[in-house]
Amino acid sequence: MNLLTSGSTADYIDTGSWAVKAIKEAKRVGSVHVTGSTKADSYSRIPESGELKFTPGAAYVHMTSNNTIEGTQWKSIPEVGNAPLVCDASSDIFSRPIDIGRHGLVYAGAQKNLGPSGVTLVMIREDLLQRSNDSLHTMLDYRTHANNDSLYNTPNTFGIYVLGLTMKWLRASGGLSGIQAINERKAAKLYAEIDRGGFYRGTAQKGSRSLMNVTFRLPTEDLEKTFNKEATAAGLDGLKGHRLVGGMRASLYNAFPEAGVDVLVDFMREFERRRG
Ligand SMILES: Cc1ncc(COP(=O)(O)O)c(C=O)c1O
Fold it and tell me: Of 62, 86, 178, 186, which residue is 20 to 30 A from 263 by alpha carbon distance?
């Protein structure tokens, strides 16, 4: 609503369910071009740069850095030419360093890596604020928030306070590069277990695998149900994949401890020994 000025087109990269929702909403505002999609591959991968066809002079290019439901993640920022890059980073924000200079706008719901739900972080390049139109409702105009130090309305003070505590914890954990190393180690352990034999099967293609959401399947849906039930009973809750894709999904957000991955890997080995 702020960036898609009248007469221009916004480019969207379709990499999964959240991208689809972003496209649907953008179409209410103006002209949208889908620059590329991996839907035909069940969103099991991130597109190659050669697959993306950008609109000359696009208002912006929108991407989803981590596809929470499908378990894929961009490994590098795509080359998008002169258009500002807009990134929904809700599910991998601050899990690794961000090259902020290559973005026009980054937005992220807090509830994965930042703090409690109910807070959204928006970082916008200052010159882009000039695109906002006076016909926007005051609260929906980014200029309002920029001009008032994000205090135009009464914000979610408790949520922001907890977010501040989380940022202190993140700094004490070695900052973004420190947490990246931890996240890489956690995910590598789990993917190694998935790849160890043929019992578990990762659903994301190897070059696109997410460090945040590890999606995998078992040989049958019945085994998946049993796995889920036994895992929950063992204290490993929330492993059921999103209903859109089925299977299993282990979310390894910043706050999830490495020891938890070790317990999950042990559980998976034991489950395979008994049921495989
Ligand atoms: C990548 C991504 N975008 C957007 C959302 C939506 O966030 P919210 O529920 O805060 O609207 C989510 C939530 O899981 C997400 O993972």
Answer: 178
Q: Which atom of ligand 1 is found nearest the CA of 89?
A: 1
Strand bridging mode 85-88 / 60-64: parallel
Q: Which of 20, 66, 68, 74 to mutate to test the pocket of ligand 1 (most atoms within 8 A of CB)?
A: 68
Mean pLDDT of the residues in the chain:
97
Number of H helices, E strands in the chain: 6, 11
* Known active-site residue 88: yes
Give yes or no: 112 in active site. yes
**CA separation for the pair 186, 201 (Å, rounded):** 18
pLDDT 10s digits, 157-205: 999 999 999 999 999 999 999 999 999 999 999 999 999 999 999 999 9
Ligand 1: residue of 15, 18, 106 to mutate (most ligand atoms within 8 A of CB) is 18
75 is a catalytic site residue: no
Ligand 1 atom index nearest CA of 109:
10
252's tokens: 């390894």
CATH 3.90.1150.10 residue ranges of the chain are 175-275
> Apex CA 185: angle with CA 91 and CA 121, to 5°?
20
Query: Band of the pLDDT at 245, cuts 50, 70, 90?
Result: confident
Note the CATH number of domain 175-275.
Answer: 3.90.1150.10
Note the pLDDT tens digit of each residue in 247-269: 999 999 999 999 999 999 999 99
* Chain region(s) in the chain for CATH 3.40.640.10: 9-170
Mean pLDDT confidence for 45-60: 96
